[in-house]
Amino acid sequence: MRTVEWRGKPVWVLKRTPEMLASLPKLDGEVADPASERNPDEFTPEYCINKHRSRKPEILVAVGICTHLGCSPSTKFVPGPQPSLPDDWAGGFLCPCHGSTFDIAGRVFKNKPAPDNLVVPRHMYLSDNKILIGKDEKGEA
Length: 141
Hints:
Helix content is 7%, strand content 28%. It has helices at residues 18-23, 40-43; strands at 2-6, 9-15, 59-63, 74-76, 92-94, 101-103, 123-127, 130-133, 135-136, 139-140. Strand 5 and strand 6 form a beta hairpin. A three-stranded antiparallel β-sheet has the order 1-2-3, with no helix packed on it. It has a three-stranded antiparallel β-sheet with strand order 4-5-6, with no helix packed on it. The longest helix has 6 residues, at 18-23. By secondary structure, the protein is mostly beta strands. The two termini are 23 Å apart.
């Protein structure tokens, strides 16, 4: 995972493993907005409304700010039992301030303080290894 700054906010660019991607469908019943249907104009561009919340399945681009009170979640990629996480944790992000948890696609789990999934900013690939954040083929966000 690499963190870059965009508009004064941390943006995570995460290359997900096949195991991480395989965990996503199993969590659909546990996350609050599995299909990213809430407020798509604000949280998820149309080209990322899919099971991976990304343009390329293996690459997640998300603003690293909790949708509850603006804290920055920490990475908890290792699956399994850990402090403040469920025993069947599949990996993702934990906001330590109030306990909101997000899966590896930035989808918030049900019954957590955060009301929405992590924001996926508009972005586009300039090459296989270069991403432009904040702008896509339709213009700036």
